[in-house]
Amino acid sequence: MVKVGVHVSIAGSIAKAVERAEAVSSDTFQIFSRNPRGWAWKDLAEEDVQAFRGALKMAAIFPPVDHMPYLPNLAGPNPEHYEKSIATLTAELKRCGQLGIPYLVTHLGHHPGMTIEEGRKNVISAINQALGEAPDDVMLLLENTAGEKNGVGNTFEDIRAVLDGVVDRRRTGVCFDTCHAFGAGYDLRTDDAVEETTGRFDEVIGLGEIRVIHCNDSKGELGSGLDRHEHIGMGRIGEAGFRSILRHEPFSRLPLVCETPVDARRDDAGNIAKVRELAG
Fold first, then answer.
1. Is 4-279 CATH 3.20.20.150?
2. Whole-number Cα distances in Å, 120 to 116, 117, 144, 156
3. Active-site positions?
4. For the segment 247-256, what is each residue's pLDDT rounded down to a tens digit?
């Protein structure tokens, strides 16, 4: 049976995220450890840390995953913004350590006005600095992106180049996003397409580097460059595509986190159920 969950809110308290994950029958879940739309954050109170850890132990849901906030840009050219981005990455790694969260997912950022090589160099420097200042029991997962202009992480070769520059390689891995891969031009709609895409990933990076899957359908067409998530099976990847994805290594054995909409058509529990159905 697949291990599947959703991204849940921490509104009210961070421990309530575990309750919300349980309420929709999640096996795993993802959070933002604080407000993702701002730069400021408060240190975690010890009572909140213990409440989260206690709830997690009681629920037997694992692994929890943390996601970086929206504003940091690890590839960017603006020095002030770049330093704030490194500080945020370092702080999130430390928060994961406090909470007992093993994985932090990050986008690699954008490089306007710079070459892709310069953007990758910035990302590598940021990662090395942050990992050097954070506890070593948290793994940083690099997420592939959807083919946006000036993006680092649109290709498997981008991710490989960044990984090759990381000093402490045992502390880095990959979060593979199905919607992003599709938007970037990696087909996932048939058995053959999934075989080809995962084969390419294995050749360039290695399937063993993937620790978490972001399981999202796509509103955009193949190679559109659009990062617009859709309900599982309702987008351009479709039910046949997800049936192929979910019955193929490594997707069938790794934690699957849906970052799908909640609307009149389907809710979080519905997307979890659909993943389980298509996985057989």
1. yes
2. 6, 5, 13, 13
3. 37, 67, 70, 107, 143, 177, 180, 214, 227, 229, 259
4. 998 899 999 9
